[in-house]
Design brief:
Elements lengths: L14 E6 L2 H12 L7 E5 L6 H11 L14 E5 L3 E6 L6 H6 L11 E5 L13 E7 L6 E7 L7
Parallel strand pairs: 2-5, 2-6, 4-5
Antiparallel strand pairs: 1-7, 3-4, 6-7
Helix pairs in contact: 1-2
The structure holds adenosine-5'-triphosphate and magnesium ion.
Amino acid sequence: MSEGIVYPGPKPLVEERRITRCSQETVDLGKEFGSRLRSGAVVALVGPLGAGKTTLVQGIGAGLGVNEAITSPAFNYLLEYAGQLPFCHADLYRIEDARQFFALGLEEYFDRDGVLAIEWAERIADILPPRTISLYLNPLAKQDEREIIVCLGPPHATK
Ligand SMILES: Nc1ncnc2c1ncn2[C@@H]1O[C@H](COP(=O)(O)OP(=O)(O)OP(=O)(O)O)[C@@H](O)[C@H]1O
Ligand SMILES: [Mg+2]
């Protein structure tokens, strides 16, 4: 068993922990989570390469009623979908910091209607809105197991 996430900052006051045992369980958790979101929600996904961030986002999109296939926006930075609410999925893997995020004009998405989910959100930790909900994904020792922790508040910067 894992000893759990080592948070980059102080441990959040409120958190919910789940273990998923395959990608479908992560999709299902995303659906459950996504179906409870309201317009204006910002969701930060934090976890190493291949942790399951995009998989979780696919579930969140399904929970928001997006019918299109949600693919990784790594080369476009951000893709937009229509569901019961507008759904934007950003991937900041290729972005180093907030300065670059602003240079691309991406901050306008914080003020859009709908839900914004951001992979590698810790890259812009300092400028995420205080209302941000963080989802930490932690691969466990067993190959397909992931610990997923939902926390109130933006993640802390990792550098
Ligand atoms: N419990 C699980 N939850 C999510 N994905 C899982 C799980 N078990 C195995 N996987 C596999 O791990 C991979 C996760 O890929 P995914 O693209 O979602 O990760 P990611 O965190 O978005 O990666 P990247 O950092 O490259 O964006 C998939 O191949 C998926 O099938
Ligand atoms: Mg991804």
